[in-house]
Amino acid sequence: MDLVVVLGLCLSCLLLLSLWKQSHGGGKLPPGPTPFPILGNVLQLDFKDLSKSLTNLSKVYGPVFTVYLGMKPTVVVHGYEAVKEALVDLGHELSGRSRFLVTAKLNKGFGVIFSNGKRWTETRRFSLMTLRNFGMGKRSIEERVQEEAHCLVEELRKTNASPCDPTFILGCAPCNVICSVIFHNRFDYKDEEFLKLMESLNENVRILSSPWLQVYNNFPALLDYFPGIHKTLLKNADYIKNFIMEKVKEHQKLLDVNNPRDFIDCFLIKMEQENNLEFTLESLVIAVSDLFGAGTETTSTTLRYSLLLLLKHPEVAARVQEEIERVIGRHRSPCMQDRSRMPYTDAVIHEIQRFIDLLPTNLPHAVTRDVKFRNYFIPKGTDIITSLTSVLHDEKAFPNPKVFDPGHFLDESGNFKKSDYFMPFSAGKRMCVGEGLARMELFLFLTSILQNFKLQSLVEPKDLDITAVVNGFVSVPPSYQLCFIPI
User: Fold this and answer.
1) Helix, strand, or coil here: 339?
2) Residue 416 β-bridge partners
3) Which of 94, 167, 301, 307 has its CA 20 to 30 Å from the CA of residue 74?
4) Distance (Å, whole) CA 344 – CA 341
5) How far is residue 35's CA from residue 258's CA, in Å, rounded to a whole number?
6) What's the domain range around 482?
7) Residue 168 belongs to some domain of the structure
């Protein structure tokens, strides 16, 4: 009797699998591992390091293949040529954003990151224009970053060369820059409200990168009916959005249409001047939340990883400091004009971003209309994962890609060398809105720190672990301590 039951279950599963694959157009999509009913390929993937799992599958199925994350097919694009073709050549057709991520649920289809169609086009265009033109004839963004770099250095001095975990301080600096752009004010590093904001942002990045959230992302029903860490994510997001709404209300009371002070003012003026359904209070709050979160955590995590790599490679830090001393000196603050005269420092920052591979699988895209891609038919609405790891760690472009080597971005004469494979901000129509600001912050914050401090590790450099502790949504560096020794 038991044998009959087992055989019956096996046949039922095979029948369900056959019907399911047919209903999802399996024959039209790129090849991939055979999925299980309902679960798809979830059990065949390591969500602690999804990027590695996808790389292994690419060795079997090639640069374009299909995995089922739950019952929904996802096309994976791997390798520079395929990724470029998807993000740039088919930038419009693949410019959609997946609607099944927990973050999409949070943002309800609004904002800069997870919106689609006309709403995304108009919100992104407005955000880009506002960020590029910011300053309103008063202070440029560079001046704001320089001012915050000075505050960062002063805060590091307060550590008195004692061992410290730099996570919080390195998060405050980029957060204050984006606060200045959005809210027209910065916060003191000891401000309780600021501390709560930073805590919420840090916790949400850890949650977004956790394996369990990857599972929740692929089974949306779990979000509503089961407890889990996603509840904490929602709670933190609500706190941030409520904080932003209070700031918006303050701006409404003091709004001067002839003298906009920041992003919120510009958005409110847009709302008053145009009867546009895409520009509402709800879309304003979520757009600000997107800029606030993305503008803080990505740069903060990169800075934290940067100092860890420089501790691991003290010879690199010393050479950067020699270049700072020669080009900038000790008596003025670094500025963006210095970068063109500092090829080694520029190469180091590029190599940091390449090596750490901050967003290994990028943010998932979606197909906006039926499209033919490399002789495969991909129907409208299909999710697309583009592996940035496969580009940033390509062996043809970067010999020994697993090794941290600034020489990857230097020519034989020691001049800075650009690479088409450098895609930490993605590429095409969905590339990062804040790329210019992030690159400015990384250069000015790092040079300001190294201009004023020697980095001292608490352990021998060879004993430092630089392996990401979480490699899901974001590559998060391990915790560490160091001493900032004044020069």
Assistant:
1) helix
2) 410
3) 301
4) 9
5) 59
6) 26-486
7) yes
Nearest to 486 by CA among 445, 444, 451: 451
Residues ≥6 apart with Cβ < 8 Å to 370: 377, 378, 379, 380
Tokens of 450: 């190294």
Please tell me the distance from the alpha carbon of residue 419 to that of residue 170, in angstroms, as a whole number: 28
Q: How far apart are CA 13 and CA 149, in angstroms?
A: 60
The distance in angstroms from the start CA to the end CA of the chain is 80
Binding-site annotation: residue ranges for heme:
432
pLDDT in tens, 136-159: 334 588 898 999 999 999 999 999
Which parts of the chain have pLDDT scores under 50?
1, 4-8, 11-12, 14-16, 18-27, 135-138
Question: How far is residue 299's CA from residue 181's CA, in Å, rounded to a whole number?
Answer: 15
For position 13, what pLDDT does the model report? 53
Q: Enumerate the β-bridge partners of residue 68.
A: 73
Rounded CA-CA distance 318/279 in Å is: 49
What would the pLDDT profile of 34-61 be if each residue is shown by its tens digit? 999 888 998 888 887 889 999 999 999 9
Task: Give how far the C-alpha of residue 399 lies from the chain's centroid of Cα atoms, to the nearest Å.
Answer: 25
The reported pLDDT for the residue numbered 20 is: 46
If one counts the domains in the chain, the total is: 1
**Separation between Cα atoms, residue 440 and residue 131, nearest integer Å:** 13
378's enclosing H/E stretch is strand 376-378
DSSP 384: E
Residue 437 falls within a domain, yes or no?
yes
Residues in binding site: 432
What is the predicted pLDDT for the residue at 34?
93
Both tokens of 130, joined, read 């506002």
CATH number of the domain to which 229 belongs: 1.10.630.10
**What is the DSSP annotation of 50-105?**
HHHHHHHHHHHH-SEEEEEETTEEEEEE-SHHHHHIIIIITTTTT-EE-S-SHHHH
Question: Does residue 13 belong to any structural domain of this protein?
Answer: no
How many CA atoms within 13 Å lie on the side-chain side of 328?
Answer: 26
pLDDT for the residue numbered 457: 97
How far apart (Å, rounded) are the C-alpha atoms in residues 357 and 99?
24
376, amino acid identity: Y
Q: Look at residue 14 and tell me if it is in a domain.
A: no
Tokens coding 383: 């999710």
